[in-house]
Fold:
Amino acid sequence: QVVKELEDAEFGASEEAQLLGALNMLFGTPEAPKYLVTNAWLDEGFDPNWPQYPAGDNGSGSITDEQFAAIQDGNAKRFEVALELIEARDFDQVERALRGVARGESVHEMWRERYAELEEDADEERLTQFVEDMVYDITNYYPTMAESAEFYRRQCLHCHGNEGGADGPTAPFLDPLPRDYRRGIFKYTPLKDKARPRREDLFNVLTQGVYSTAMPNFRRFSDAELHGLVDYVQLLSIRGETEILIAATMESDGQMTPAMVQENYELAWSRWQGQDEKLITFDGPIPPSSEAMLERGKELFNDANRGNCMSCHGASGRGDGVAAWRPMKDDDGNDLVDESGNRLTSAWTGLELREPAYLDDWGNPIVPRDLTRGVFRFGNRPIDIYRRIYAGINGTPMPAIGESKDADGNPLLSDEDMWALVHYVRSLSVDPDNPGKGLLPVRDLHAAHDGHGHDDHGDAHGESADDESTH
Structure:
């Protein structure tokens, strides 16, 4: 039982054992994680355990040809010394070369098994074939789910926990807290409709980290390792969603049936499909910033019936809006007051004591972003902030207004209005080394994955996990 809803469920030992048994059947164990392949998937040649193979050919096809080419290039660099020794037929040194980079992975075991089978008196044709096969297999290496699970335990568990619940031993000391994957809610996507992240979104979080948080980048690892880590994070998330669905159905129906288990498993899995259709794009050049655009953006920012940003972020953008804070309460929910009935104030600042008015979807107090600090957690390019205004931020009170309608059914904000808001929000960030200069320099977090410049176009096709949280 992994989240508060499940903790509140009145399950006995028998129900808990049934739930754990169903999860082990569907997702394997920490030592041997594996998706259950349904009969329908078998008939379609679909197997999510093999993302590097096409759907219809006993794979899921979630890794594109371009991504796999990058994996091959990364393997060639990672195993460069071993590959050179193999091609030079200096086989006695390969074991040592692999030991330094393979870290006990299957590529190391594969070499030992294949080399042990090579005859001492192998002829030239056999040696040539052996070299070609080994070069191909090592260059095309992709980790098993079990290897990725072990990699996760070495690199991620201390923050994100064994099941992805943000309950690792390091987690209590971090602010903001690590992500809890089990609800399937991820804040950092360029997608609308609260869609689950695409593979490239999770991959880019791993390669770039998350600005101003404890989430580092893992670019020191190969693409194969990082895509394998994406696989395991997805499995933990789908497992958590499936657990919540099955437990809720058990509580309402009073029993578990095979049909119910499969139905909820397929439902959880379906939520991770079709994300490309949810990508937020803007065709054409981004309208440039101007005095008129900034004035229009300020007007919309403070208009309670249009942008309404000031209600949370405050009129000056410092995160002090009236809707986001409330007077501090006692344990009974009453305002904290002094003997005269006045609300308590801070002895340090003289300001009224207050607390966040909202909780995020994980149950944690949440405050609006102070936009003047220029801290946008996954990019401050115009298209990045456009996507946040358009789609909101998953798991937070930040609303989506890109497709909102007015009372007459017309778009609440036009394209020009959206970009006016974007430019105004960006203008609130001031460079402390250059007072009065205005906008902080663009942090080009996505140059390695974007085919265009910083500010010239908004037609990004999602190569970057372009999000910055305003909460």
